[in-house]
Amino acid sequence: MKIPVSVLVVIYTAGNEVLLLERADHPGYWQSVTGSLDLIDEPLIKAAARELLEETGIDVGQLPDGALRSMNYSVEYDIYPQWRHRYPPGVEKNTEHWFQVELPTRMPITLAPREHIAFRWESISVASSLCFSPSNQEAILQLKIK
After folding, report:
1. H-state helical runs in the chain
2. Whole-angstrom Cα distance, residue 57 to residue 21?
3. What does DSSP assign to residue 140?
């Protein structure tokens, strides 16, 4: 069962292009990297780095120091009914912690085929408008660009 604490990682380039992933279980649903903690005491930054690697093939260890950083923000939201079966009985809310990772330029992306079927790079405004999740839309708009 999933832990109702997750990370959302917005990936963008120095040219302010945002990476979006299309969900395999819901074609047409675009999002940033997301994922729940594997263990209740897993550090959030480690979960963000793990999910980034699992879903895109991007290894934080190969990026400049500080490329992955917390946005120092979290939201609690209702878990969509179609996904509640993944959580313990009675769990209806999830707390999502936001992260961002800046890449110098676009990088090759290796999708996790069970999770995503396509990716695209878009401007901040277009990327935000394409996300199905309101919190993901807001996270993109709140990017703290250096």
Report:
1. 44-56, 124-130, 134-141
2. 13
3. H
Give the pLDDT confidence of 3-23 residue by residue, as tens digits. 999 999 999 999 999 999 999
pLDDT per residue as tens digits for the range 107-133: 999 999 999 999 999 999 999 999 999
Structure tokens at 31: 């999002």
Please list, residue by residue across 16-45, b when 16 or more beta carbons sit within 10 angstroms of its beta carbon and e when fewer do.
ebbbbbbbeeeeeebbbbbbbbeeeeeebe
Q: What is the DSSP string of 89-104?
A: TT--EEEEEEEEEEES
Overall average pLDDT of the 43-60 stretch: 98
DSSP state of 64: P
